Amino acid sequence: MNHFPHDFEWGVATSAYQIEGAASADGRGPSIWDTFSHTPGKIIDGSNGDIACDHYHRYPEDVDIIASLGVKAYRFSVSWPRVQPLGYGAWNEKGFEFYSNLLDKLAEKNITPHLTLYHWDLPQALQDQGGWLNRDTTAHFANYAAEIARRFGNRVASIATHNEPWCTANLGFGNAQFAPGVADKALSIQVSHHLLLSHGLAIKAMRRVASSAKLGIVLNQWPAMPATDSARDVAEAEWEYARSVQWFMDPIFKGRYPQKALDRMDMSQFHTEAEDMNIIHQPIDFLGVNYYTREFISTDSPPKKPQAAMGVTDMGWEIYPLGLTDILLRHKNDYTNLPPIYITENGMAVADKLIDGEIDDQPRIAYVHAHLDAIHAAIEQGVNVKGYFYWSLLDNFEWNSGYAKRFGLVYVDYATQQRTLKASAHWYRNFVSQQLRKTE
Ligand code: PNW
C-alpha cells in the first residue's frame, strides 16, 4: 500500500443544500435551488431539497458517523440564506447557531472543519436583483464572507470562497442544467468574472478580519485530452482546457485571462473594470481541486468516444484516475506560485442496492483506491497535495439528478432517514487507519 505524508488530511465532504433539508426552519430564506427544484421539469425525479438527509436535525448522528470512519477532517458548506435570509441586510442568529452547534460537535469528536462559503445556494432575493449577473452581488458576498470569518474564522481550519465556479457559470447559466437556469453562453462569461471578482473581494475582506483560517477556493478540474494526435483534436483540446481550467486558474495565479480562451469567446457582454484583475490575483493559502473524470475531445463527427477501459460511473462519467495525476503535474509546471493543494472532492455514483441490510459497492472501492494511487503518484513527482475528501459522506440531493444518484460512503434510506455504512465506508476506514497508524 502507498504511504502518504504523515500530515496528510483524510476527510469526507458534503454541501448545505444537498443534505440539510429544513428549508424553511428557523428563519432560513429561500435560495435559487429552492426555486429551481420546485419548478416542474428541472429535477429528473421531481424531487427537491426540502428535507434531503434532514442533516439540520440529525447532525449529531452524522458527526458520530464521521468519527466512526476514523477520518479527521470534514468539509461542509454554509447555506448563505440560512445565516442571511436576503443575502444582504439582517443576519439570522438561529442560522449561525446551527453552524456553531455543528462546530461544537465536530470539536468534541476531534474532527477538523473545512468550511465553504458558497456551494451554489444563492439567496433568492439576490437573484431577484440579477444574482451573479449583477456586479453588486460581489460586494454582498464579500460582506457575508467577512461575517463568517469574524464568527467562525478561529474555529475552522480553512474557508473556501467558492465551490466550482465553473459549474455556477456554465451549468447555472450557459446550458441551464442548474439554478438559476439561464440558457445564455455569453452571460456565463460575465457570471464567471463576477464569481472570480467576488472571490478576490471576499479574500481581501476576510484578511482584514485576521482569523486563523487558511483562505482559498475550490475548482472542479479535468484535463481535456485529444482523441487522436491530429492537429485539430490537439488544438481543440487545448482550447477546451483554456476555457474551462485556465479560465479560473490564470486570473487567480497570474492575474489575467488565458489569451487562447479570449480569442474564441463571445465577449460581447463582457464587462470588467480596471482594478478587477488585481483583486482576483490575491495570494491564497490553498487550492481545492475537485476531480471526477477527464474530458475527451474529438473533432470528428460523430465524435470519437473514449474507450473507458475502467468503465463509467452511474453518472455516465468515464473513470480515468490518471487524469488526476496529469492535471496536478500540469499545474506544478504552469504555475510557479501554487499554494498547497487539497483534493476537496472525488467520488463515484453507483446504483447502490440495499441487500440484507448491506451495500456491497465494490466499484466505489476500486474508484477511490485508483484515485488515491493517482494522487500518490503526483506527490511522488513533487506536487504538494495535503489532503483528500471523499465526495460524499452521505447519499444526498444530487442537484438536477435528485435522489436518483448515490455518491455516499453511507447509504441513506430517504423514507426512514436511516443511515447504513456501505462496504466502501468500511474500506475507507481501514485504509485511513492504516495510514494513520504508520505515522504514529
Ligand atoms: C460537484 N460536471 O458537481 C459538486 O461540487 C457536488 O455538489 C456534486 O454533488 C458532485 O460534484 C457530484 O456531481 C459537479 O458536469 C457537477 O462536470 C457537474 C459537473 C462537475 C461537478
UniProtKB/TrEMBL annotation:
A Pfam family of the record is: Glyco_hydro_1
Q: What class of enzyme is it?
A: hydrolase
**Which GO terms of the molecular function aspect are on file?**
beta-galactosidase activity
The record's section on PANTHER family has:
GLYCOSYL HYDROLASE, LP05116P
Q: Does the keyword Signal apply?
A: no
Q: Which family does it belong to?
A: Belongs to the glycosyl hydrolase 1 family.
Q: What is its EC number?
A: 3.2.1.21
Residues of the active site are E345 (nucleophile)
* Keywords attached to this entry: Carbohydrate metabolism, Cellulose degradation, Glycosidase, Hydrolase, Polysaccharide degradation
Q: What is this protein called?
A: Beta-glucosidase
What organism is listed for this UniProt entry? Undibacterium aquatile
Task: Tell me which domain of life the UniProt entry assigns to the organism this sequence originates from.
Answer: Bacteria
Query: Reaction catalysed by this chain?
Result: Hydrolysis of terminal, non-reducing beta-D-glucosyl residues with release of beta-D-glucose
